[in-house]
Structure formats: C-alpha cells, structure tokens
Amino acid sequence: MTTLPDTLPKAWRPPMGWNSWDSYGTTITEDEVLANARFMAKHLKVAGWSTLVIDAGWFDPHAHAHGYSDGTPLCIDEYGRQIPDEHRFPSSAGGKGFGPLANAVHELGLELGVHVMRGIPRQAVHENLPVKGTGLTAQDVADTAHTCVWNHDNYGLKRGDAGAQAWYDAQVDLFASWGLDFLKVDDMQTPFFPEEIEAYHNAIAKAERRYGRRITLSLSPGGWVASTHVDFLRNVAQMWRISDDLWDRWEDVFQQFPRLARWAPLQRTGHWADADMLPLGHIGLRAERGDDRQSRLTIDEQKTLLTLWCMGRSPLMVGGDLPTSDDDAIALLSNPALREVTAGSANNREIVRERLFAEWNVEESYIGDLIIWTADAAEWADGTPSAHPGGHYGAIFWTGGDPYDLKGNIQLQSFVGIDGRNRDWTLIDLWSDAPGTASDMRLEGEGEDRVIRGTIPAHGALWFVIRPF
C-alpha cells in the first residue's frame, strides 16, 4: 500500500506487475487474483514485481470468454457506480467492494488495481440514477452519442461539463475508499479525449487528498497516440499506452521497435510510455483471444520482448497466469536486470537500425533488421546507486528468421563513446542465467579496435552491460 505523503513521485520507476486480461479476459475470479498475488509475493516480488490489475468486466455477472457481454445488466450501486460481481468476488458482499481483496493484497506487500472504461454505465443512464453529491442525474451528465466503438457498457460524458467531473469524482472516490492503488482507464486515447483524461486526473487528485493514499493512472489503448501529446500526458498520468493490444505473435513484437524508439527519449521519472502487456507464460485460459496455451513466442522472442521493453523503459505488465506458467517464463521474469535497467538507466535510445540483405541492396534478398540500443547506467530515482557506475547498457536485436553472426562489425565505441574507447572495459551478459539460446557474446580486439562479437538467434537479442574495470 502506498500512502501520502511521499517524497518520491508516483511510479518513480516503470511499474512492474500482472494484469488478468491475457489469461482471463473479463472472467477473472477472486481466488485467481489471490493465487497470482501469492505467487508474485513468493517468487517475483524480490525482482521488482509489485502490482496486480483486475482487467475489464469485474462488475459483469454474465462475463464470458472471447468477448464482452452486450447490454446485459451490470453490478452497480445506487449511484450507478460499478461494484464487483459478488459471485466471482465473494468478499465484496455487503457493500465491501474490493476493500477486503485490496487488504489481502496489501498484506502481501503488493498493490491492487482495476480496469474501468471511460464514461458512465448505460444502465445508470437508462435508470436515471442520481450522481452522488449533486442534484443531477445520469441523464443530465451523459452524452449518449459519445460512445466506445468496441465496448457497449458505457455512454460517454459531456466533455468539460461540471456534472461529468462530479460523476468521475464519485466513481474514483468509491475506488479509493476500497484502497485501490492503480486505475487502468480505457477508451481514453484512440481517439484522444483530453477533457476526459484531465477530468479523471482531477478526480484522482481529489480522492488522494481525501484518503491520503496514492493512485497511479494508466491510460489505454494507444493506437495512433502522437508524441506531441507528451507534455499534456506528463501532467495527468503515470502511464499511457502507445499501441493497440499486443499478443503472442512475432509481428506484434516487431511493430513495437519503431514505437519505442520514438518514445524512449521522452520517458521521464513518474511518467511512462507503455508498450502494453507481456503475453508471456500461461495465457488464453478464458481470454478474449486464442486457446488455452503457453505463450507462442519462442524463448528467444520472449527475451527480445523483455529486452526491448526494458531498454525503452516501458512498464512491465505480464499477462500470463503466474502459478501455471512454465518454468522458463518465470525464470525470464525473475531476472533482476529487468528492474535494474528500467529503474537505473538514462539516455535510452536506438542508435542503429539497418535492413540487411543476402545480396547487396537487392530487395528480394532481405533477411532482417539489425537494431542496436544503448543507455547509460544511472542512479535510481529513489537514490539507489547504479549497479554499474560509469557503465553502459546495450542491446543488439536481430529480426531475421535465421541466426546472425555479428562478424566484428559492432564497435565498442558505439556504446562507450570515442573518448572512452581506450579505457579498460568488461562485458556482462544480462541474460547469462536465462533459458533460451546460449550466448557466445564477447569483446575482441585491443584498444580502439575492440568490437563485440557473437551470434544472435533468430528474432533474438544480445543484452549486456559494459562496465569499466
């Protein structure tokens, strides 16, 4: 549980947590949340994982796999605010909401959040329920033409209207009274609705003052979110998505390279561009898409995903059901380098991206992209010293379908700078203890001629830190 005051900003490092969507869609139960919380506390908390988020439909008594209910009655209170389905969340009975579940998660040293859609439940509007704390009703504040195209739970609110602000104030006040730490608010960015986002930010600020606790705001989805919005987003949110939903397909991972390259230089303490959930481990149990499965990404593709997210300082929200995920996935998530790099790096950026061909510049012979990132090892925002003072993080990605030999083309000075090339350096593999293809990465040569050698597996990555002796 995070309480006020705190000298550190909210989300002072990119949050690391678990989200129910990839595993359970709208159907997650209290027992399943607790099972994931206990697993996280026992196996992953030490590596930096700390938050659990109940995704969409927790208020839907008719929730089912592979989609949303459409027009069925929801669980709402007398003011039209969503409350948990008591059959799936029995501890919420008697008006307790998520309070008991939040307490159980806090006792494990973790934080709890929920997903909610932009706007007001249609059911509240049809029944014309009062807006708490006002003389208004749901029909006074709703904009019935301002709806989500892919979810039909809610109507929009009259943007910029005091009544709309009052509705969000009342909703967030209820969530804060339960002790929630994290709110993922959906249908906010595609299209981009600044008035609604600011209203939600204002509601959170009001609830934080009343209850003396901090609440992280995460915005979704992220299709076509322009980086020109960054100043506005830093003022109102701690996380914002930069893509639509990502699943366990290589093409989804591949598409995140240019997005993270665009956003990484704009990352700031407390405010993070989010490349979406990690479809790792056991997903699809009762999800929106696909069958029950362990992630279809290869282990090397999973390492690439995690490496890219960390070098881009994206939040890490894993989607797999933790207790039933395979050992390899848990081993990847347990890597302390995930927190080390997301919390303790600076000047993160892509420095090389080259399309390579089997025959020089013959388009039909294209074999893949070689992509290189670097970052400086830095002190953490909480004052934790860098794990590698004076060091530099590096990642070399290969998007081709066959392994690629670096052939001595990657110079050390690309990472340590021209002025640092003659110093004594050592190279440390950040995936050295992880499953997947074993790395033959190494430094070769002397002085200014030193290069990084190695073979990158198909769709793979070499991830390392170069530190001075």
TrEMBL record:
InterPro entries to which the protein is assigned, alphabetical: Aldolase_TIM (IPR013785), GH (IPR017853), Glyco_hydro_27 (IPR002241)
Listed Gene3D superfamilies: Aldolase class I
Keyword Hydrolase: yes
Any one Gene Ontology BP term: carbohydrate metabolic process
Catalytic activity: Hydrolysis of terminal, non-reducing alpha-D-galactose residues in alpha-D-galactosides, including galactose oligosaccharides, galactomannans and galactolipids
Sorted UniProt keywords: Disulfide bond, Glycosidase, Hydrolase
One Pfam family in the UniProt entry: Melibiase_2
Molecular function via GO: alpha-galactosidase activity
EC number(s) stated in the UniProt entry for this protein: 3.2.1.22
Keyword Disulfide bond recorded: yes
Source superkingdom: Bacteria
Family designation: Belongs to the glycosyl hydrolase 27 family.
Official protein name in the record: Alpha-galactosidase
